[in-house]
């Protein structure tokens, strides 16, 4: 187990390069805080940005254990299924070890967070025959759809700042996107984002029946109407759905836009448990 502590996550322990854990120093027996909070961050999220959510959860739910599960661009495009399962192995072990009456809050961000949360749910179901035993689900800036400009913007975050290298990277990203689209057309397979959208409805994967969608009209990576369409479909399928629609915040930046509103929505969702 590594003791590496990135700036912003000093109170967390590193279990592997993708997984960090915080355990409350003391707990109150009668606490209604979630037993475990799972934060599936957006692709290539920096520890400094993640800490704003992690430390907020520590403040609002001081009795909770918190797991941060990071996702890189390589995880979603290059690494094998076996490598990704190895990456999330500590999370599976921790969930397996929880007492039966434990309560879980799963908070995923963007399509990167949706990718890894669905991976976890699928592997948990494969191993146990049960849905991931989460109590509430929060979808922040997710799920979107596979669209050229939005997809390239998401991956471009990790490109070099150098002007020439950045333009070369952007060209390669558009080429990669075109090849991916062509592959889906030839094979007639459902694209990866559409598979995530469907998986998030699957009661064999996710055990929760109440969820919160947080999104924005100003998001340039995940369009607001794609999120609203998913929320409306979830409601038709019998999920309890709450939505927080922001007017101008950027991708995964709604907390910074209006912190009070953000945490109020999270707390209202959890209090309905």
Structure characteristics:
globular, alpha/beta, 8-stranded mixed beta sheet, 273 residues, 10 helices
Briefly summarize what is shown:
Helix content is 46%, strand content 18%.
Largest β sheet strand count, sense and barrel closure: 8 strands, mixed
Q: What gyration radius follows from the Cα positions, in whole Å?
A: 18 Å
Kindly state the number of beta strands. 8
Helix-strand pattern:
EEEHEHHEHEHHHEHEHH
Share of helical residues: 40-55%
What is the averaged pLDDT score?
90
What is the helix tally? 10
Low-confidence stretches: none
Shape label: globular
What does this 3D model show about the protein?
It is built from ten helices and eight strands. The chain has helices spanning about 45-60, 75, 80-95, 110-130, 150-155, 165-185, 190-200, 225-235, 255, 260-270, and strands at about 15, 20, 35-45, 65-70, 105-110, 135-140, 210-215, 240-245. Helix 3 (about 80-95) crosses helix 4 (about 110-130) and helix 5 packs across helix 6. It starts with 12 loop residues before the first strand and ends with a helix. The mean pLDDT is about 90.
């Amino acid at each position: 187990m590594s003791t590496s502590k990135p700036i912003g996550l000093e109170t967390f322990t590193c279990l592997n390069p993708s997984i960090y854990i915080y355990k409350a120093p003391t707990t109150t027996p009668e606490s209604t805080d979630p037993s475990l909070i799972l934060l599936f961050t957006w692709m290539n999220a920096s520890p400094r940005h993640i800490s704003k959510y992690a430390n907020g959860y520590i403040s609002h739910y001081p009795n909770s254990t918190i797991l941060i599960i990071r996702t890189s661009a390589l995880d979603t495009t290059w690494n094998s299924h076996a490598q990704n399962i190895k990456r999330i192995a500590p999370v599976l072990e921790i969930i397996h070890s929880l007492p039966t009456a434990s309560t879980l809050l799963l908070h995923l961000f963007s399509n990167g967070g949706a990718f890894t949360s669905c991976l976890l749910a699928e592997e948990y179901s494969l191993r146990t025959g049960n849905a991931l035993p989460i109590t509430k689900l929060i979808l922040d800036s997710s799920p979107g759809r596979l669209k050229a400009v939005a997809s390239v913007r998401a991956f471009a975050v990790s490109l070099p700042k150098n002007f020439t290298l950045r333009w070369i990277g952007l060209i390669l990203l558009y080429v990669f996107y075109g090849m991916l689209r062509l592959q889906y057309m030839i094979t007639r397979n459902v694209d990866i984002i559409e598979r995530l959208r469907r998986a998030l409805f699957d009661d064999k994967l996710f055990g929760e029946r109440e969820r919160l969608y947080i999104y924005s009209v100003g998001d340039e990576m995940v369009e607001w109407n794609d999120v609203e369409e998913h929320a409306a479909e979830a409601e038709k399928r019998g999920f309890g759905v709450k939505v927080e629609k922001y007017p101008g915040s950027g991708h995964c930046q709604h907390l910074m836009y209006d912190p009070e509103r953000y945490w109020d929505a999270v707390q209202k969702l959890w209090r309905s448990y």
